[in-house]
Write the C-alpha cells for this entry.
Amino acid sequence: MNEISAPHCRHTRHIAFLAIVLLWIMAQSSCATVKPETLQFNVTTSGRLDNLAVEVCFDASDRPVTLIADEALAKRIENAGAILADGSRRSLDMRHRRIELSGIEASCVHYAVRLSERRINEWSSGFNRHNGAVVLGLDHFLLRPTTHTDWSGVRLNFSPNPPIKVLAPGKLWITPHGAQSFSFQNRPANWTGAIAFGKLTLSVVRVAGVDVRIAIVGAIAPDVALKLQAWVASGLNTLTSLYGRIPVPDLQILVVPLERNADPVPWGEVTRGGADAVHLYVDSTRPLSDLTSNWVLAHELSHLIHPYLTRSDAWFSEGVASYYQNVLRARAGLITPQLAWKKLNAGFERGAAQATRTDTLAGDTPAMLDKGRYMRVYWGGAAIALMADLDFRRRSQGRISLDWVFDRYARCCLPSKQRVTALALMIALDTIAEMDVLVPLYERYAMTSQFPDLTQSYQELGIAKRDGTLAFSQAQDAGYLRATIMSQ
C-alpha cells in the first residue's frame, strides 16, 4: 500500500545531506566537554531506611537562584535550610515546588526526604521497598537547580555507613575512607533513573572492557544471588554477540527478586537518567535454565544500542529489541537458530493479527495501551528490522548488516544526551551505510496501515509456512543467509 514514488530518490539525496549534519551534531553532543563537577549531592541514609539527609552544595561561580522539586520529591521533602558562606544556617520554605535563593549567598542547601511508607509500590512508581532495601527514583530525592537542565558536572556522594550498601547511575569513585561517589553522565535532568540502597548483593562483571555494576536488591540467600548474577552475566555476553562490546561506558543493573510468578521475568525496563541502567524484576524461585531461556533480559539490553527515542517512536526501539532478543540468544547458544526463526515468525503473526486497515504503525504506538496493540507495535517494528537487515546484506554482498550500522553508530554517537525520533535515527543509519534502506521502510510501513510484507524476506531466507509450521530450505544460499544472521 502507498508505494514509494519516483521523486523519492531526490528526496533521499536531500535527507542524506541532512543526516550528515545530524550525525555531526550528535557526535558533538555526545563528546562535548563536560562541566567540572560544580554540583555535589551529599547523601546520608538512615539505618532504618526511612529517610535520607541530603545536602546539595554549589560552586561559587554556579550558584542557582532557584531549586525545583519534582512532584515526587515535593511530597517527601522536609526541613529545608541553607548553609551560608559564613557557616550560619537559615531555614527555607518551598512554595509551588520551588525554593528561592535570590539574595541568599548559600554555599549549600540541606533537606530531609521522608521514606516512611511501608507498602511496596508499583514497579514503575519510583519508590520500592523490598526485603531491607529501597529503590528510589532520582526525582524522589534530588532538588534540581535552575542552572542545571542536565546533570553535567553532578556527583552523588554517599557517606560511609557499613551496613548500608548503595548503587547509583554513573561512574563509581571510592575515597580512601570508603565513601562512595557516582559521577553522572551529561543527561537531561528529567530523564528517569534510580538508586538502590540498603541490603544489596553487589558485584561487578567486566564485559569487553566495561565494568557493569550489578545489585541484587534486598536480603537473599547466597546461592540465589549467585544464580541471578550468573543469569545477568549470560545476558551481557549475549549482547556482546552483536558487535563484540557493550555500547555504553557505564552500566548499572538492578535485579529485584520476586516470589513465585507466572512469568520468569515479569518486568524489565531501561532507564537513562544519570547514566544507562537496566531494571529487572525476576521470579527468584526459577532454575537458571528458565531464566537464561527467557527473552526479557536480551530485549532490555538491546535497547542500549541506540539513543533514547521519543515515546511516539517506540515502534522502532521496541521493534529492534524484539528482533535482537531472538537473534542474539541464538548466537549465544541459549536457543537454537530454528527456534529463533519460529519465535520471530510467531511474533510477526501476532503483530499482523492486530493490524487494521486504517491505523498506521506510527499512529498505533502512542495509543498501544488504550487500544491493546502491543503486538502490532513491537512486531511491526521487528519486521522492519529484519527487512532492513536483509536489505543491507543483499545490497552490500554481505559486507554491511544491521549489526554493522549500529556498531558504527555507537562509535560515533553513543552515549547520547539527545532524545531522537525514529526517522532521524533511520536517516543516520542509512547515511552511515551509504544506502537508502531504512527510510523507505519507514515511509512504506510506519506511516501506513499495512503490516510489513515479509513474503520476499522469507523467500530469501528459504523459510516456508506449511500446515502451521515453518519449513527451512536446504538451498545453499538461503541456508547460509539464515546461519549468518544467527551466528554473527
